[in-house]
Amino acid sequence: LATPTVPSIQDFDLLKPISKGAYGSVYLAKKRSTGDYYAIKILKKADMIAKNQIGNVKAERAIMMAQSGSPFVVSLLYTFQSRTSLYLVMEYLNGGDCASLLRAIGALPEEWVRHYLAEVVLGIEDLHGRGVVHRDLKPDNLLIDAEGHLKLTDFGLSKLGFLGRRDYTPQSPHVLGKSNATSSSSASINSSASGEGDSDVITASSLHRKHALGTPDYIAPESILGLESGESVDWWALGVICYEFLFGVPPFHDTTPEKVFENILSGAIDFYDENREQASYISAEARDFITRLLCREPRRRLGYHGAEEVKAHPIFKGTNWDTLLDLQPAFVPQVENIDDTDYFD
User: Fold this and answer.
1) In the chain, N or C terminus with fewer CB closer than 10 Å?
2) Domain AGC-kinase C-terminal: where (predicted)?
3) Catalytic-role residue among 13, 36, 136, 340
4) DSSP label at 338?
5) Which of 71, 78, 106 minimizes the C-alpha distance to 281?
6) Is 136 a catalytic residue?
7) What is the sign, positive or negative, of the torsion defined by CA atoms of 40, 46, 47, 52?
């Protein structure tokens, strides 16, 4: 029997860049033998070693392989390496990501938001059922397939790859629920640990080490404070995403990471429009959904007892969870060629 050939980068033609990050880039590529298109994440070994990211990349690979066949996660098809780089070959979704969609059209209609959120809820439920906490959910990591459905990507900060989350030096005191805790007011900015996109990622230093915590706007209070955190951080991020989909900006956004953290820890949510009037286009159900997800106390947060309580919220009234993926979303990418990257900005 012939030994299966191990793929190499020579088997692919790199056509154009899709995104660029701190540790590498993602390219649209075409497999020479079949003509099939893929997204290839190329990670420079030297950069990953220098920034202590090898463990995170291994965890990301293991998690994506474990999700093989999931309709909610971008498929990882091959992994291989060269002397200088690591390569993750994934399915190419030419609908772009939700961050690009927001930049293109601004806030989304609530009907769109409801459908997108429902698909993300199913994705989170599937991950948690497999023992995975994503930890970096945000519009950039929600990719849109050719039929308009969402898939989760970028597991560089997920539970298996998220080490040392409690190991940072406390400086300024804060209170979360009934627990006294401390928060580091010293933070530095690096680009995405996954190599997908240029979004900012916070690192907190302790014992001369730095550990990625996530993207500032989407980090849960317990993660900022270095408290024990689990599945509830993904439900917090869903609340931030819901607000951003409806208003066009994240609820705690500010000019610096420190100010974003202060806003998150204060817990104040602004539901007013540009005229400082109650946003009438946001339903009471959506406001309640956001408020319950953005509860600073994890044990009182919607989703703490599992995805079923999220799915039971009135915002999803009338949703048929069993046939959700059979429905056609309101936005379906219109691409002229399979190799179009127009929806990625």
Assistant:
1) N
2) 317-345
3) 136
4) T
5) 106
6) yes
7) positive
